[in-house]
UniProtKB/TrEMBL annotation:
Record flagged with keyword DNA-binding: yes
GO biological process: DNA integration
Coiled coil: none
Keyword tags: DNA-binding
Superkingdom to which the source organism belongs: Bacteria
Recorded GO MF terms: DNA binding
Gene3D superfamilies noted in UniProt: 1.10.150.130
Occurrences of domain Core-binding (CB) (ranges): 1-85
InterPro entries named among the record's database cross-references: CB, DNA_brk_join_enz, Integrase_recombinase_N, Integrase_SAM-like_N
Species of the source: Fictibacillus marinisediminis
Protein's recorded name: Site-specific integrase
Pfam families found in the cross-reference section: Phage_int_SAM_1
Length: 152
């Protein structure tokens, strides 16, 4: 099967991790399922950027997937498409012009004063091999941050 050949190529030639291969395999199953659900051809020659965009729209509108998940799905399809063109399974790129959305940026999480006190208490009582190093690193970083904040 073509998808199996593609995944083997990613594993052997591209050295992709087991988790990445698992993710790609799952994501590659969604596109043919979409095509079948909407009575569209699953032949490589019949795939088009317009159909791919409809697939992406459905993923967002019907399943409310996050931008990072959508990026992974698009990346899997783009890699598969490039592989198919490279190996002469098809002569057109059905992902041409399809772009992944910008990912949602995570808001930084800050330690509370209580958590910071717990960290320093732990470091002061730590007797492990790296205790001194850890204490110096955290104290230096905290001093740097305090200096950066007060000098503004």
């Amino acid at each position: 099967m073509l998808e199996d050949d593609f995944l083997r190529y990613l594993q052997v030639e591209k050295n992709y991790s087991h988790n990445t291969l698992k993710s790609y395999a799952f994501n590659l199953q969604l596109y043919p399922a979409f095509l079948t659900k909407h009575d569209r051809s699953i032949l490589l020659a019949d795939l088009s950027p317009a159909t791919t965009r409809r697939f992406i729209q459905e993923q967002v509108m019907q399943y409310q997937i996050k931008p990072r998940t959508l990026q992974c799905r698009i990346s899997a399809l783009k890699s598969f498409c490039e592989y198919c063109v490279k190996e002469n399974y098809m002569n057109h790129n059905f992902m041409l012009g399809v772009q992944a959305p910008k990912s949602d940026k995570k808001i930084p999480v800050y330690m509370t004063l209580q958590e910071l006190k717990q960290l320093f208490t732990y470091l002061e009582n730590d007797t492990g091999k790296f205790a001194t190093r850890n204490h110096v690193l955290v104290a230096s970083f905290a001093a740097y941050l305090c200096n950066a904040i007060t000098s503004k």
